[in-house]
Hints:
The structure is a single chain. By secondary structure, the chain is an all-alpha fold. It folds into 2 domains: 6-65; 71-210, no CATH class. It contains 6 helices and no strands. Helix 1 (6-28) runs antiparallel to helix 2, helix 2 (33-98) runs antiparallel to helix 4 and helix 5 runs antiparallel to helix 6. The longest helix is centred in the first third of the chain and has 66 residues, at 33-98. The radius of gyration is 33 Å and the shape is rod-shaped.
Amino acid sequence: MKNPYALGFWCALIALVLLSATYFYGIMLAHQIDTAMIFLDSAVALIAVMAIVVVAWASVQVQRVKKRQLEQGKVLVLIWDTKVALRRVETVFDRYFWGSYWQPGRTFAEVMGELTGTPLEKSLEALKKQCLELDKQIADEGWHWLNNARELSDVATAMARERYQLDFCDPRAEGPEGAVIDRDFEVLVYTWTARLKSFDHQLDEIEAEYS
Length: 211
């Protein structure tokens, strides 16, 4: 029942009908006033009990609706925060790999193709924390969103290592090894793009579900 007050309306209508019937029945039994009054008292008591039940039921329904709306609001806020964190990862990723940030030799970790201490790693960690909060709020999902963030982090780490190999290999080399590295990097780029779009699409779906 979509309208929590619909049952109350019908109960009130039935109560009015019962009261009217009681009145007319009492008139018909005018020569038995005591019987009519007993019947009237019984009807009034029944109506009072029905009214109490309806009020209690309506109160419970209202509380449930408010609780559901509050939970939906919390989930929506978490979804929006996760989207912001995902956009941050996407922006930092583009700047890190395709912009001016990538400078081989900045740190020992970067020279070895690691993301440790980089803005990309920090943005990915922030995304993981946000996904963990989202998973906690949506209990039936398990660790779905956290796993999505971890998959992105794994791909980014693999890309950093491949990028290191590309930068420190002679680009003019024509051996088959260089071609393999290029192809592997292209596969990783495709994987990153596909998972990023899938992540974003899943967030859109769950946002529509809770809106």
